[in-house]
Amino acid sequence: MNQPVIAILDGYTLNPGDLSWMPLEKLGSLKLFDRTPPEEVINRAKNADILIVNKVIINANTLIQLPKLKCICVTATGYNNVDIQAARQRNIPVCNVRGYSTNSVAQHVFALILELTNTVAVYNESVKDGDWSRSPDFCYTIRPIRELSGLTMGIFGLGQIGQAVATIAMAFGMKVIARHKHPERDRMIGVRFVDTKTLFQESDILSLHAPLTDENAGLICLSNLKRMKPSALIINTARGGFIVEEDLKRALESDIISGAALDVLSVEPPPASHPLIGVKNCIITPHIAWASKAARQRLMDATVKNVEAFLRGNPENLVN
Fold first, then answer.
1. Is the full-model pTM beyond 0.70?
2. What CATH number labels 5-100+293-311?
3. What is the pLDDT of residues 294-319, one digit of tens each?
4. Residue spans per domain, the chain
5. Sheet with 50-53, side-by-side order of all strands
6. How far apart are CA 133 and CA 135, in angstroms?
7. 266 φ/ψ sector (left φ>0, alpha ψ -120 to 50, else beta)
8. Which residue in 262, 203, 199, 249 sits closest to 230, CA to CA?
9. Between helices 102-118 and 160-171, what is the axis angle to 10°?
10. 6: which of 101, 157, 217, 274 lies 20 to 30 Å off by Cα?
11. What are the pLDDT digits (tens) for 167-199?
12. What's the CATH class of domain 102-284?
């Protein structure tokens, strides 16, 4: 192949300016776009030999209109934005990146948990408002502070991220239970595998870490939330589709559970009228659990390796 044309259609979330595109620039003629609206995909990708996308939709109709395309690299683990079957029919390899964000996501899980249990931001605002300066005592409490030691961490999906979360939970002195499709393959010292009903009943904190499937979509619904302790917390850094959002809103407003912290929603970006925005005891962050600089650098490096492997004629990390 002569110098390949490499088109990046939505590069901003991977690299908002603190990483370097130079390793990819060395591999071909790089066409870089921070964002690409659907109506511009064909025009921007039409001369590409290699297409690099994160969330841009590449469907069968799009592929028909890209006769030069030879490879698609997804800058993520999930690849549901690409029509895998249509790519296979056109002999276009699709490559993804696994495992780059494990530590980053596990860290964010506990950032969310600690904000729910220690409410650091609330206390910081209180001090800035002068409450401590006016206090007659050397300390005061606004909300109860929950100690993690002795609580039960429930994990739905004990893959790489779930295992990292379990390790941190045990370091805090928590008991760990998990619901997992392959308990024998992925058994872990200190983790007790349970069925879904028991997971909801026993978890003080339930964190979601499985791939989203038709089978588990809507797992966090009112009937399952009612199985939980009134003091229970839900953490979701996986996919928004796990949660029936109106049900979670009702559960929080009715004190069926104590709190939730979400890094993902069913629609991203969400409408301003999203049912969970502004609900009491519900923390929402904008899908940033994966996005530490270290994780994004690993993702960048792995994407470069995927392109290099394709150019050598031996594609790696194939999903089709």
1. yes
2. 3.40.50.720
3. 999 999 999 999 999 999 999 999 99
4. 5-100+293-311, 102-284
5. 29-32, 5-8, 50-53, 71-74, 94-95
6. 6
7. alpha
8. 203
9. 40
10. 101
11. 999 999 999 999 998 888 989 999 999 999 999
12. alpha beta
